[in-house]
Amino acid sequence: MLLIRSILHMLWMALTVIPWALAVLVFSLFGSSTQIYWLCAGWLRLAVNGGTFILGIQNRVTGMENLPSGELSACVLLVKHQSTWETFSMVTLMPHPLAFVFKRELLYVPFFGWAMSRMDMIHIDRSQRAQAFNKVVAQGKRLMAQGTWVIMFPEGTRIPRGQKGVYKSGGTRLAIETGAPVIPVAVTSAKCWPRKAFIKRPGIVDISIGKPIESVGRQPDELMREVETWIEAEMHRLDPEAYAPVAATPR
Predict the structure, then answer these.
(1) Can you give the pTM of this predicted structure?
(2) C-beta separation of 205 from 56 below 8 A
(3) Residue 26 burial by Cβ neighbours in a 10 Å radius (0-12, 13-18, 19+)
(4) For residue 28, what is the domain's CATH number?
(5) Given 3-state DSSP classes, what are the helix, strand and coil percentages for the chain, each rounded to the nearest 5?
(6) Domain with 175 in it
(7) pLDDT value, residue 131
(8) SS3 151
(9) Among 81, 106, 127, 246, which one is most buried in terms of CB atoms within 10 A?
(10) Distance from C-alpha of 16 to C-alpha of 167, rounded to nearest angstrom
(11) Could you report the per-residue pLDDT of 224-249, keeping only the tens digit for each?
(12) CA distance to 73, 131, 211, per residue, from 76 (Å)
């Protein structure tokens, strides 16, 4: 049954993304960047709603009151990354447009990537590190000045349930450069949608939004350690089963 539901959800996404992406490509000829963003967000909402209806995955969100208020408020969201689920869900949950920082190769994915190329995001060439970060700062400043929030996954890649990756300081460096606060976010998506798994399981994904951490006067590595400490402690609280010590096998 889990296999059938996973196949149905994959078909749901494949069948809906093609007409949606084509609509985005046409609309981008005359629509504003904000309008294009919310049009793309509509498909992500379809994917998340399909995940709830077909797969039985539900989000349980806490800490929405910790998000900045105000039309032009700025922040850098630093999110625990366990699966594709949070990349879809965060867009549907946030009251502001989000700008993801991602590798430019994703723009070449048929339909999905083509639609992404019409959005005002920050795509980088990771082989050129210095130039890539300068681009992140320049575009991040511009986007946050117009009320768009920048979202990054500090571990850089999807991490298996119960594990911790290396937290890189790019997100905190951007926050310090722009003076924007950092918002840490813990996500337990791997309980239902494990990393690189085709078969998904029904259940509740906890998304916990932490209080803003001011970046002014901070050092990137020291600020990232505070973010890492909060996220990982919150992950242990939200998903204690994943972090339970493994009993030694008797000889």
Answers:
(1) 0.90
(2) no
(3) exposed
(4) 3.40.1130
(5) 50, 15, 35
(6) 2-241
(7) 73
(8) strand
(9) 81
(10) 35
(11) 999 999 999 999 999 999 998 765 55
(12) 11, 20, 12
